[in-house]
Each structure stands twice: as C-alpha cells, then as structure tokens.
Amino acid sequence: MKRNRNIGAILLIAAGLLLMAAALYKLIPALLAYKRADDTYEALREAYVTGQPETSSDEPAEEGEELPAWYEALRVDFETLREANPDVIGWIYFDNIEQINYPILYSGDDETYLHTDLYGNASKSGCIFMEGNNVPDFNDCHTILYGHNMKNGSMFGTLKQYKLQETVDKSPYFWIITPDDAYKYKIFSIYTANVDGDTYTLIKGPGTETVDYGNAMKAKSNIDMGDYEFKQTDKMVTLSTCTGDSSTRFVVQGVRVDPE
Question: 184 - beta bridge partners?
C-alpha cells in the first residue's frame, strides 16, 4: 500500500511538472515577443527623439533664434524616421505616463498596423495608428487613434491609469507632435465605450455637430474633468484600446488647446 502511495505521489508530481512545462512553452514565446517589441520602440526613441520635456528646457536657443511655444515638447527627427517608414505621421506622448511615447502611423485602413511594427515585421503589439477614414494631418474635428492594451503595459496598455482620479490630477494633458507642429490636448472624457456606439463618429469639418459631439462625449465620462465649452472649430482626438470584452473599448478623449 505504501509503495502504491509513493507511485501515486510521483505521478502527481510528474503531472504537475508537465503542466508547468506546457505553461512555460506557451508563455516564453509571448514574453520574447513583448521583449522584441519593447526593444524596437526603445531603439526608435533613442534614434529619432530628442528634447525630452525634463531636459529640453535646459537647452538654450541659439543667438537670435526665437523658440516656438511648444519647444519643451519632444523633438522628433521625422525626416530620418520617414526613411524607415513613410507612413509615420506623428508622435504621441504623455507627460505623466512614461510608457506612452510612440510614433503614430497611418495606412488608410485599420488592419495594416494592427499586428505589424513600424519596420513591417509581424508583431502582436502592432503600432499606434490612425483610423483609416481620417485625414492624416490631425485637422479633422474628430480623429481616432488605436493601440493595443498590452499586458506588459506597452502601447496603450497603461492608458487605463486614467481610470484613477489621481492620474488625471497629476496631468490631464497629452501631446501629439507632427512634422509641422506640436499639439497639446486636454482630456475631457474617460469611459468605456461600445464598439458600435457614437464614440466612433467621425467629424471632418467645423460645425455645430462638433459642439454636439463634444458635449455628448463629455457627458459619458466616469471622471469629472471640469468645465469646457466646446467650439465648432475644435479638434478632438479619441485614444481607443481594447478591454478584454470584444464589444467594448476603453477610451480617453482630448481636445486641442493652446500649448502655452
């Protein structure tokens, strides 16, 4: 009887080890994929981005040079970056979420960069990319940017920090840098949206629908973002990421404001 119990224990341990091995077999490729994606974008930042906000203000202007109001924002070498991929249209970063610091791509569709990195390699992380029906100059009254909610916090994986009031209190702003300008956006709404809801309504030109849309989206917010009076000419951006439920997305919406 004792011998049988020993055999049973050994079999249980062996079964446990096999289960652990199977789990590791599935986990290790995923971890390696995360690492490759992180390394790719870290290399991009090192190669093409200068003037991080915490250091750029220490760099004096050359004599006689007048610096733009947004000088303390990132400065991106778009000319060289576009040699690597001409689909790059901008760069997004948050002052208070270090991980959201990525190029923005535009292909004219919503599939190309879903699981492809900037260099055209297969990647679960994909890229931050613009809705294909937008125009890629950020001059639509409503522009949508998509990014994966990665488990390691990359891409838009840390966007969910804005579910907390303390994150908003720290800084309710994000920046989008383009080859021509740097745009500052004030967050006005944070909530979980239905994938087929009015959140994803595109607005091309200025008009009363811009004001109506802004007010309707602000009313959805789960966080009190204070007062804002929308204008017909406002430029809004929706940052959209998955929630784990195929019918919903977590969104953070901002409106362009004076950078000064």
Answer: 175, 257
